[in-house]
Amino acid sequence: MILVIVGPTGVGKTKLSIFLAEKYNAEIISSDSVSIYKNVNIGSAKPSIEETKGIKHHFIDRCSLNEEYSVYNYQTEARKVLNELIDKKKNVVIVGGTGLYIKALLYDYRFTKKTKEDEDFSNFSNLEIKNKILSLDPNNQIHVNNRKRMIRFLNSYEEKDTNNNNINTPLYDFITIGLTTSRDKLYEIINTRVDNMIDKGLLEEASNLFNKGYKKLDYIIGYKELNKYFRKEITYKESIEEIKKNTRKYSKRQYTWFNNQMKDIKWFDTNFIDFNKTIKEIEDYLVSFNIK
RNA sequence: AGAGGUGUAGUGUAAUGGUAACAUUCGGGUCUCCAAAACCUUAGCUGGGAGUUCGAUCCUCUCCACCUCUG
């Protein structure tokens, strides 16, 4: 049995996944592009050792912050782990907020294999790059301003898999559960969660990592804003507000992804006062699939 | 209470006696490897009233709100 748990940040996915993994004697595969890195513990809201209740968690602390790790690596490794667990007839709970990682793992999503060095486009304007693309692919839809995507396209064009039209075809049998809540409630939770992270020592954690100079941190919410504070670009208070704001925006994008890129999600409202009620609803739902 | 100043989008700021702008927030969206990323996009404003004027956000008066100083 493969159970997939999705939803925006802060709704209680981790808690639910551990409960269900314990109940169904499953191992957990995390689909989170940040907690896959070591040392970003508080800011990525990783479960503590006590919280994991001894359940095997894959892809948490998988690599170090100076390693390059992409969705392609994740897809390769996570499928391997997943296949092994299936062979062992082990139940699996896949949980995470990174939609692309989940989709790449479970659907027929194909990435191109790198065979040559990346070309340098720094001397080209966005429009010039776009025109290059159009000469190869007249119907290309990548927006002119999306330089990163355009360059990525050109650097992978030759190896492109032309049969890659199956990104919505699932490769496994799985049940997808979404946890959600009202927008207002979610924003409230995000705001207090950031404050809690600070209480738990996020500032110190971020400061230690900042001093080691990991570039990756400038891409991670909670660290990139504090880095700006450490560089004296903004005040401490401003950095906290930015963390909250960026987390809210992130959660919004997660909704967009899960609503539009993944089908067949059964959504449940999180009951924050009595989480057991949420769990009960989900258990009842799973019974309808003969999962007990 | 008196004197002065300021009122433009949720916020921060432009501009003009003739179609009110930029950033940002909010909302919506895109997605084949930095995805907690990158990018796109809808909407929204001249404090209220009166006057001058063909036409006022701009000039005048008044009310209201806020700020500073004096008491």
Could you describe the 3D structure shown?
It is a single chain. By secondary structure, this protein is α/β, with parallel strands linked by helices. It is built from eleven helices and six strands. A six-stranded parallel beta sheet has the order 3-2-4-1-5-6, sandwiched between helices. The radius of gyration is 20 Å and the shape is globular. 30% of the residues are buried. The mean pLDDT is 94. The structure holds one RNA strand of 71 nucleotides.
Side-by-side strand order of the widest sheet: 3-2-4-1-5-6
Instruction: State the distance separating the first and last CA atoms.
Output: 11 Å
Radius of gyration: 20 Å
Biggest sheet descriptor? 6 strands, parallel
H/I helix tally: 11
The whole-number mean of residue pLDDT values reads 94
Helix amount: 40-55%
